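Q: Here's a chain of 105 amino acids. Please give me its 3D structure as tokens.
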Amino acid sequence: MARTVTDANFNEIMNEGKPVVLDFWAEWCGPCRMLGPIIDELATDYEGRVIIGKVDIDNNTEITSHFRIRNIPTVLFFKDNQIVDKLVGASPKAVFVEKIELMLG
């Protein structure tokens, strides 16, 4: 299961020393609900190696504004606290796996 990332715990999660994948989503967003199970699968697949988190944009406006999230779902990929990749819209699991493997490689 993906971790819940909030304005309050964002810095703590980013400082855990692992690559981070954040899914910016909202309950009312159809494509976000389609992507949700894939994000949860990735969290299981990469447990202990990559932090996979979900940011509810309606309840976490600081992070959402900071990263200028305009469309959802948006998934940001972080390595060493820097954004190294970004996906906007729903994509197949294989696309996420490829990007995560590149971060780990």
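Q: Can you summarize the key feature?
A: The CA atoms of residues 64 and 70 lie 8 Å apart.
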